[in-house]
Amino acid sequence: MEIVQIMERGILGSFVGMLGLVLYNFGRTAFMETSRIDVLSVVMAGATFFALTKKIGLPYILLMGGILSILLFGLLK
To answer: Domain containing 62: what range?
Structure first.
């Protein structure tokens, strides 16, 4: 049974590393390829981080993020 726990830790470690790389690439694409950092994007990223730390469900975060993106970036710009 100990060998399975060691394998689980290795898989979990590689998964966390992969998620970190995806997050880095996503952030670089979202913020740096536009050659400017938009204040609304930073505020939405901060609000999402805050919601995740407060253990708000991911479906609610995604729904509100989609609605706010449409309102702020689609209709107001």
So the answer is: 38-77
